[in-house]
Amino acid sequence: MEKLMMNLKYRLCSRDGMEMVQVAILIAIAVFIGLIFKDKIGKFINDVFGELFRSDF
Does residue 11 have a pLDDT over 80? Predict the structure, then answer.
């Protein structure tokens, strides 16, 4: 029984580790894409907020 509990605990811990790796990879991809399209994203945000500030709502 003790061996079964240790095996189960190991599997749960390794699954959490894999989820953290997946999150880290997704964050790295998001940062990489952000760096590639930095100018376009900045222009888009400036255009959107510029239109909002100019409007009378």
Answer: no
